[in-house]
Amino acid sequence: MSLELAMLVPHTPRMCHEEFAPEFQRELVQGMHQVAGIIESSQPDVLLLVSCHWMSSFDHLIDATADHKGVLTAFECPDLISDIPYHHAGDKELALKIAQAGKDAGIPVKAVDDPTYVWDYGTVVPLRYLLPRVNVPVIDLSVCWAATLEETYRWGQEIGKVLNESGKRAMFASSGALSHNLHRGAHLMPSISEQAMDKQFLSYLNSSDFDSAWKMLPQYAKISAVESGGRHIALMLGVMNANHEYQSEYFGYGQSSGSANVVITFKPKA
């Protein structure tokens, strides 16, 4: 087997507790529930997730811990995310294989096996929605700030190759926003220009025109300050490169302090 589903999902802090999510994010909340249903019905063997809030300086990091257990209070927003327990199995064997593939390709990758490491909210928040009822092993990935989009894309390709060879039913989640010029005021939308660029980029994703999405990403990331410089998207596109035919499904778009958040999935065609 190989990649069963890829997805671009939000992690906005106000979604951490669904009962407190503002009305303008309800479309995102409902979209995440729909994707959770797809995951549950598909029963994958592993879920890989790249988080824009696991920011590594010089190396691409992959969490090879066999058991992820901790309590999260977010440094940036302890008023919104505090004392959140999480517990997910890992897949150490697969994580180490992926790390080695990256090294063999000349990419600076390091595996992290440390049960005391506490996950960030870009990891914990989406998993609270995506895996509420199923025990799927999780492998967490960082975004590397020293890496170019091109290097990040190549790293994604290596991940995709390992998944194709693994014999496991894998899913890949990219946790991060599109336009990300933040402003005070949770209800604020991105600017009109940023929304226009979001719409154009999403049109490429929705039509599975990933070549155009990839060509647009560098300039789009600079102008609209796409979260993590677009690295989470570059990694996802690289992973998906191993399978060229996809059917996309769009579930929603919503704001958070001037950022653009989206729920969209990509299922390989038979």
Walk me through this protein's architecture.
With 270 residues, this protein is α/β, with parallel strands linked by helices. It has one domain (3-268): LigB-like (Protocatechuate 4,5-dioxygenase, Chain B, 3-Layer(aba) Sandwich), CATH 3.40.830. It is 36% helix and 27% strand. It has helices at 26-42, 92-104, 121-130, 149-166, 192-206, 210-224, 231-240, and strands at residues 3-9, 46-56, 60-63, 67-72, 84-89, 109-112, 138-144, 170-175, 246-256, 259-268. Strand 9 and strand 10 form a beta hairpin. The radius of gyration is 17 Å and the shape is globular. The mean pLDDT is 95.
- Tell me the name of the CATH class: Alpha Beta
Please work out how many helical segments DSSP would assign: 7
How would the global form be characterised? Answer: globular
Count of folded domains: 1
Helix and strand topology:
Layout: E1 3-9, H1 26-42, E2 46-56, E3 60-63, E4 67-72, E5 84-89, H2 92-104, E6 109-112, H3 121-130, E7 138-144, H4 149-166, E8 170-175, H5 192-206, H6 210-224, H7 231-240, E9 246-256, E10 259-268
Parallel strand pairs: 1-8, 2-7, 2-8, 3-6
Antiparallel strand pairs: 1-10, 4-5, 9-10
Helix pairs in contact: 2-4, 4-7, 5-6
